[in-house]
Amino acid sequence: MEKTYKWDPASHIKTKEDVIGYLEAVLEENDTELLFHVIGDIARSEGMTQLARELNLSRESLYRSFSKSGNPSFTTVIKLLDLLGYRIEVKQKTA
Known about the structure:
By secondary structure, this protein is mainly α. The chain contains 5 helices and no strands. The chain has one domain (14-84). Helix 1 (16-27) packs antiparallel against helix 2. The chain is globular and about 50 Å long. The mean pLDDT is 91.
């Protein structure tokens, strides 16, 4: 019998281009719950313990905020993206 493993997107995020592509793809979905989950994947790829420390949160709280059922504050999202080296930009929608 062949052994299977749960696929973890965080283990496949290796470059800044991977992060940007992942974020751009999820933003096309207009799904905030999915967006928060993806930001959590990106954070896990960078190391949740250190990020939580820098945000003055517990690691568990950071995991919970960006889990599939999480609902982080906009401030937490902005601070985390900033720590990761990203920012949100607004562009005019094209047809």
